[in-house]
Amino acid sequence: DAGITQSPRHKVTETGTPVTLRCHQTENHRYMYWYRQDPGHGLRLIHYSYGVKDTDKGEVSDGYSVSRSKTEDFLLTLESATSSQTSVYFCAISERAGNTIYFGEGSWLTVV
Amino acid sequence: SQQGEEDPQALSIQEGENATMNCSYKTSINNLQWYRQNSGRGLVHLILIRSNEREKHSGRLRVTLDTSKKSSSLLITASRAADTASYFCATASNFGNEKLTFGTGTRLTIIP
User: Fold this and answer.
1) For an interface test with B, which of A66, A99, A102 has the most B Cβ atoms less than 10 Å from its Cβ?
2) In whole angstroms, how far apart are CA A89 and each of A47, A58, A108, B52?
3) What DSSP character marks residue A96?
4) Whether the Cβ atoms of residue A56 and residue A71 lie closer than 8 Å to each other
5) In this model, does residue B1 exceed pLDDT 70?
6) Which of B24-33, B55-64, B89-98 has the lowest mean pLDDT?
7) Which of A41, A58, A90 sits opposite B99 (nearest CB)?
8) B92, A97: Cβ pair inside 8 Å?
9) Contact partners, residue A26, CB within 8 Å, separation at least 6
10) Hey, CA dihedral for B82, B51, A101, B6, is it positive or negative?
11) Are B91 and B29 in contact (CB under 8 A)?
12) Which residues of chain A have pLDDT under 50?
């Protein structure tokens, strides 16, 4: 298994609170991604990073921000959580653009 | 919007039978990939087929790609109970292929 650790794995939070999800990799891969998975929508890309301090938006980036200060860490922040952000969040990594990506085990977030 | 759309959404077959899933996409691609997801887990890469390839095999998996029809199929032969999972296609476009776009998946159930 690729060395990807997501934390926390499960979280319940209240509407309006900030939430940060962390992804840590030990593979030294250049690309890191945050996806969310919802029934009927499959996986949708939130943000991705192509290097330290280099990030770009995906298709559902509103309400989310990311940071990558080190190769191994990619943080996803919900500045003010809403119920529509209740989802399963997956971190993924890739050595090269468009190539195989490796997924973490997911973080289940519930916003009440 | 989703680039890949899998068909059918759900499929149930008897153990030992073959399972076929299809994926259609909309824009030119660099490659197409198939992933499997067991319930409650992250996605696992199965196979990658490049736009200049028409067929690829990996164990009991056979993938075909028809770029003129913008479609791909995944065949699992001699299915086993352990093949029960959701299967997703993902495409890397020719433009900005650092982002993989996933379909909504096919839920495969193998009946023992």
Assistant:
1) A99
2) 11, 14, 6, 33
3) S
4) no
5) no
6) B89-98
7) A58
8) yes
9) A3, A4, A72
10) negative
11) yes
12) none
